[in-house]
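hiii, so i know i said id send this last week but things got crazy w the move. better late than never?? heres the sequnce for the chain we talked about at the cafe, plus the structure i predicted for it. fair warning i was half asleep when i ran it
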Amino acid sequence: MGTKVRHQGREAMVIARTLGGSQSYDLRLIDGTIVKYASAEDCEVVTGDAGRRSAFGTGTAAPRASGLQFPG
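okay and structure toks below
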């Protein structure tokens, strides 16, 4: 969570990962709009952020093996 992505040409932040058969995410767009169940294929990780901030706000966290693919 907290990964910056681009969804349909608009910047967003992953706020939740949905559970189910396919990988999808809830996103908060830059204007505050919430997009529910955005598929991983429709999200492009914004390079430079790569979602490596710790969920606790300090340090870094390693990217997860499943879900959005992080560079590096």
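btw DSSP finds no helices and five strands in the chain. thought thatd interest u
miss u guys!!
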